[in-house]
From TrEMBL:
GO terms for biological process: secondary metabolic process. Keywords: Decarboxylase, Lyase. This is 2-amino-3-carboxymuconate-6-semialdehyde decarboxylase. The keyword Lyase applies. Coiled coil: none annotated.
Amino acid sequence: MTLAARLVDIHSHVYLPRYAALLRARTTVPRILTSSRDGKPDDRLLILDRDTGRPVGPQYWDRDEKIKFMDRHGIDLTVVSSANPWLDFLPASEAQTLASQLNEDLEQYCADSPSLSPSLKRIYGFGMLPLVPEISIAALLEAIDQISKLSYLKGIIMGTRGIGKGLDDEALDPVWAALEKTGLVVFLHPHYGVNSEEWGEKNNGHVLPLALGFPFETTIATTRLILAGVFDRFPSLRLLLAHSGGALPQLSSRLASCIDHDPVVASRLEHDARWYLGKLYYDAIAYGPEELGFVSDVIARSQRYEPGSSIPTNAPVDRALGSKRMLFGTDHPFFPPLQSTEKWQSVVDNLQAIDAVSGWGQAEKDNVHGGNALSLFNLIQL
Ligand code: URA
Ligand code: ZN
């Protein structure tokens, strides 16, 4: 098998044992509620607003379970990240200490994973920054420095709150600068969704916050980054968006038009809003070939907005081009099948979606499966 034909999962979570212990010791959300049924542990994870919980067990923290899941689905390599809500709920000093410990823990988790080849491990990781209110920028830069020196950590996972004012906070500029300089990939992941009053009174389980709230949160955070000129100031920043960028691809022309018609921002940005979408990376967790194809087109379309481009706005896009910035992911251990099955439907759906995108040939599919991840995380030459 060539390196390019590898299956690489770039969206896969873990609650490291140290973090799971913290959740277990808590009495308010986020927490793990421990109980037992018929003498067996029957723990539940409560992390979301109005959360009634979901079953939680070793698949959330045990590396052997992660490897078993990988083997079962033919996944060669995984880049794991801590699951939400990270350190968001902790006071600054505790968050700082824990971030440093968890980054070391994650390095060890990866180091102890099996090897894929003499120079490749099966697991790499995204570290964490203590992004909480009242943290000093120096502490954030220290965490970036720590992560950049840990050989199996290839990026960081980040929520949308920043240090309390969101990611368009100018105070974060030194953080973006350091992330750009170190080349760490920034994985932007939602947690809060949108105002839960929007969900009404019916009990719809986790459907509305996960299917809509999560992607809208990512959409808003990324749009605010664009509007704040973060990609103008830090053009080499590598930002990976969860859940295929949420609704941003669908709303990007509307965003561009709203910007053009607004005197407050009309001349603020260096590019048309659609240009920025071609500079981002997107996981391929959209569950359908039409959605993946559409995201791919939107990425490819960004070429039209390159400075000096003479491509007319009605020229057809080269869908294959967009596939270069899309990467397979599973969201494991979330979305397990309701009835036990050999393979998880959520994974099968995303693999089948990649396979069925019209206009993607084998080379594009191989890239989305793993080739793009190996180059984004600089694992290709190993
Ligand atoms: N639910 C979560 O809380 N996080 C995920 O990443 C996926 C589902
Ligand atoms: Zn996720």
